[in-house]
Amino acid sequence: MKIRSSEITSEYTYLSRRKFITSTTKLMLGTLLVSSCSDSDITTNTQSQIDNVSNNIDSLPDKLTTYESITNYNNFYEFTTDKERVSILSQDLVISPWTIRVGGLVKNPRTFAVDDLIKIFDQEERIYRLRCVEGWSMVIPWQGFPLRKLLDLVEPTMDARYVRFETLYDPNQMPGQKSNWYEWPYVEGLRIDEAVNDLTLIATGIYGKSLLPQNGAPLRLVVPWKYGFKSIKSIVRIDLVAKQPESLWMKAAPREYGFYANVNPKVNHPRWSQKTERRIGELQRRNTLMFNGYEEEVADLYTNLDMTTNF
Ligand code: MTE
């Protein structure tokens, strides 16, 4: 018997329903910890809230990285490759007004002003570890909203399999984009089931304060079980697409940076080991954890994937 197209559930709808069911049972301990510790409205920017969060630990439990380090040791190649100068060189980036276009294979393409998005969605706090592919890591208390909520608004169609993200392209404001070492703008992508996972966040702030330019203001992606380069900054465009997007790093060095980029101590970077990492603020190196410690939440996304070839 032929099935009518109206009876077929799109992959997006299916995954979102499934996510809704599992997220109620798999609520992250980190999220619970934060909600029980922060008793005030997190969208206002006061010093007392910074103190409030900075005493917290994440779900492992690890100590939070200081606000000072999070905002002064950055990777943002659009400005410079010098981590300690990103904060200085990015200060004049105009982050308001800012719009983000969400389109591609969706029923309801829309352009949102960031100020409106912040009003539409409750801002949640999530303490996540960030592990850079270079071998350093931090623990960051983000604010933001799950990417899934934004995708729900635009209604992905049956053909949508991946999500493609793009950073602002403006060489006058971002001098690093004048170099032709990389193919600008910065592009990243996720499979749609990764995108709707409850851990996947669109971040709008850190430590109760709005994001600063160096951390990807006004909106950036945070995917805590993947190497930091997947967490694309200062996003202007999100498209639902049928084919796997090719990221800036895949184009620049395809043998070194793959599409998945899941944190994995057993798969080395061609030029260095990924077994250990340097947590910013600590002296000793620590062991890198599978999926950066989020194995329970995400391992089932990859049961049929060879993680060595799909690095
Ligand atoms: N996004 C853009 N647009 N440009 C970048 O150079 N660097 C990535 C990621 N997002 C990068 C980016 C890398 S390599 C890392 S480790 C994280 O941002 C660093 O985020 P942070 O500076 O907020 O710690």
The largest pleated sheet is described as: 7 strands, mixed
The CATH class, by name, is: Alpha Beta
Average pLDDT rating: 88
In helices, the fraction of residues equals 10-25%
The separation of the N and C termini measures 41 Å
The small molecules bound here are: ligand MTE
Structural class call reads alpha+beta
Radius of gyration, CA atoms, in whole angstroms:
19 Å
| Strand coverage percent | 15-25%
Judging by the overall fold, what is the CATH architecture? Alpha-Beta Complex
Number of helices: 10
The secondary-structure element order is: HHHHHEEHEEHEEHEEEEHEEH
How many extended strands? 12
Give a description of the structure.
The protein is of the alpha+beta class and 311 residues long. The chain has a single domain, classed as Oxidoreductase, molybdopterin-binding domain (Sulfite Oxidase, Chain A, domain 2), CATH 3.90.420.10. The chain has ten helices and twelve strands. Strands 3, 4, 7, 8, 9, 11 and 12 form a seven-stranded mixed beta sheet that branches. A hairpin with a 6-residue loop joins strand 11 and strand 12. The chain is globular, with a radius of gyration of 19 Å.
